[in-house]
Amino acid sequence: MVKATFRLSKKIGSDDKAQIIVKLTINRSNRPCFKSKVFIKPSWFKSVQIAGKGSDFDIIPPKKGRFNYMEVKEANEAKAQLDSLVIHLSAICNALAGHPDELNHDFIEKAETLTNDVPATEITRKVIEEAITMKESEEAKRGKTFFDWVNLYFDSYVNPKGDKITQSSKNKYKCLFRMLARYEKFVRATDKERKDFTLDIDTFDKDTINDFFDYIEDEPELAKKFPNTFQKMLVDSPINNTTRKQVIGQRGKNSVIERKKELKTFFNWLNMQGYTNNRPFIGINIGTAKYGTPYFLTLEERNKIADFDIKSRWEAMSRSERKNLRSALSTILTQRDIFIFHCMIGCRVSDLITLTPESLVNGMVHYIPIKTKGEKPNVISVPVTEKAQALIDRYKGVDKKGRLFPFISTQTYNDAIKDIFYLCGIDRIIDKLNPVTGKEEKHPLYEVASSHIARRTFVGNLYDKVQDPNLIGSMTGHVEGSKAFARYRNIDDDLKKEVIHRID
Q: Regarding the domain with residue range 299-501, which homologous superfamily does it belong to in the CATH classification?
């Protein structure tokens, strides 16, 4: 005989109601729990002691009165609904009592065939379907490690818009999960009380989150303190996928905030898929990333770099001066041309290195940003100026991989850009937000220059001439309302002065 017991969910909704949970005991090994879909106010749920039979429950509505008639009606309907549900569930479970393990997708069909005298209601069907999902979820979890769930996430994640995770986002997530792998290994290696420590999606809690992010902020110092431990850890869980020397650098506040967002998204996905009910980020303050005002080259500075006689400047330098440079002269000259073209196109460096002659159509550069590939394709098109076309023609057929330019690597490109700025005398002092301290610092441009300044130069100078976000966005890939793009609205002091003088 199936026995039904009841309890009230601890989760209280915005309507001040909680759900009644039904537990059916078929035998000692089979005691399925069902969410009843019946919600009542906790004060209505009354436990009743029955002599020799333990406790049962009742729904006690408020006393009838002028102002609570609807509540009385609602409570009585909830009681009737729950009684009907229990009758149906009990009949179904009794019919399948000889097959206790058959709670699967065939359950409903079999049950309805075996219980024609007690047909299943719609709510019974919904309750059973949810129980099946929960059971399958529990079965799927058996034997899976935290990082097995990570791999499943990469394979099957789809965002609310229906788009799969992009490769650029996947690379960021891989960085996060390598950090988590190092954290797990570090705890095991250094904490005797947690030598068997294992990350788990069900036990990952607020304390784990805080401990992990304390770890990644302290990781550079920990690497110095435990060099042998980290040497082993970095073999299996490197900083990134590069073959370059593994050096753990200090992470800024913005980087930590982004990692928190990524981890929260991962757990949101686990919840949406029904793999866990654990919500560790409840009550966690993620914070807001802070960025300084974008700095970029003026058109005069850009043209100075394009026309500057770098070779003569190089030849006039002493041997000791040249030692301060990161790149050879031939590399600097080639990368200078690439950089100037980059300033005229405004794409991300990841897109720049993929451009081929096929990207040129009717005097336009066409490409799909790698950052958004996997989502709804958005083709970016940028007109090619005479100067840009001259640079394309100069390197026609040079690259062995068939690209527009002989690109070596992003790191080589960034190193060369700093040398180019130094040789050309681009030493204007700019304010840069320190990512670690969050404070503004002053630097000459040649110290902080990188590939991204080319994209900023394109956007900043366009916005100076034509303040139309949609037009500029169509050539950069910035979406409407982009926070990154909005920062360019505060960049031109000269324009501000001009406007102010109009009302002087």
A: Intergrase catalytic core (1.10.443.10)
